[in-house]
């Protein structure tokens, strides 16, 4: 029963902007004629704002002993350009208010501050928008929180850039670089030439990046929990934006090709959301009648969006210092441990193609034979596409007919063949994953001709998206698709006895919005992450009923998904045009179990070709599991077996934490793993024999390097060791005292 009297009494206890409060940090209004400096201090980090009348601007961020982070604009003689952040900018994407709005349009309605925190409320001078920002400094970490409420009658699509740090400089625009949670990790730069925009999920696999100045930098983490809620009400699309042209285009390939701009370098987070208008909620009349208690600093008549929390850590040292902080901050992410012991020990994944089977006159009875062949490259887990029927009987386009997974390919032997084949592969110690598509359905498949159209992603104009010709794009947040996909996969496990699935596209697809009004998430379109989490949860629930040892791998990388899946498969080297040069995700989460591809050549214009062994060695040194693609399989087989030998002898390489300490060594790639004892990996990624001269940091005391594979030892004197390596050789050592 609603007790009106009690509710009114609670309301009366809320702090009010009008309440007389004489304490130093009370919420107060400001005088339009005065100016003041607001300085927030942590341990060594200092954040300065300036209030000029009703306007608030971020003036400077500085860590003691380091140059200031924001540099003065040559023309404006102030930090940042006026439309560009410091700390916020708004871009209205459509409608009568379309345009870019900077801090000068936000007028303070109330402000509260202490030595380490400022909270300010604003109304906008030309938009029906009210907002609040709160900035807190603790130690050397700045926390940014924001909220914005839309009071326009109609819905509006908005991008909030918050925080947006404009005109940033560490060592200089030609030296500073971006280290991003893009796929398994990338380094891009220099910052002065870079235009980079990536969304989490759908490009970014973790909502974090660093701006690295060589021996110092700052890390940015967007740590909202909205995607984990039971409903999508708090969700918005969040993207890392780092560049010199504002506003940045969404498409990374287009952004990377943009000519160098003059508005940066800037770095920040973009929060995109469709804000519903007041007409959906009854407007002022409804508010006055039932919702107002007359005390709140922001009047919320329409929809609102939360911005952040975003954390900025100003650090000294190499990128691993910031990564250690990120690792700790992201510990709250749940990550599943598979009960399948065979899978925990599996470090290489190979693939087969249905075309290859047809050409060789083989079928599903031959799975043990194919498994034996893949063992020659070091793998005993096989991903098999095209195991289900083609669209038209008598044809061989099994792979195209994505959706009809329940109907096993008669042209490859049918259900009996896959059952017998899987069983025999098991007896030989092999394991089979079947290939399914997580996000697209062939329009002329059975499910494509029945329900898939209703589950498809819809653009704002009512058209269906079609990223691949002839396919429907599934909305991951649509319950019909989730249930059908989950129960179909469970049925396939029951029918065939297969070990699990490789779900293509799932984490490797750009973050899409869905405006389909029939979907249960409507009217909110920014449900991509929330939906992926829901669909993967449903799949896990259903396949576990059939067999709790079922392995689920997704294409792409995404830390949030790891709660329900067992690992991911990524072409990190090729997809990033060989910018996968910092193993950020392996450092943050050893549990990620990403199988990184070995042989695919880079995509995109002007991408350099790498010798095929190079990506494999990079993966091995940094402890990534390996996806042994069909491409280059013959060429890479001997090296694949060598890597497998070391992975078997040193489980630490794929499972242990990457060390924060590095050897100093320019000739070869090395990595240290924090196991007991510590393990060192070394690779010569060149076609010449090399004598590597390694220097260990004082914190890593070692007297002998011992190789478990050939029992050879190498002396370490005064922290230095020399190691001769053949071309393309990979080795690992225990670090013994
Ligand atoms: Zn949808």
TrEMBL record:
Signal peptide: none
Highest taxon of the lineage: Bacteria
InterPro entries named among the record's database cross-references: DUF6259, GH
DUF6259 domain mapped to chain residues: 404-572
Coiled-coil intervals: none
Name recorded for this polypeptide: DUF6259 domain-containing protein
Record lineage: Bacteria, Pseudomonadati, Acidobacteriota, Terriglobia, Terriglobales
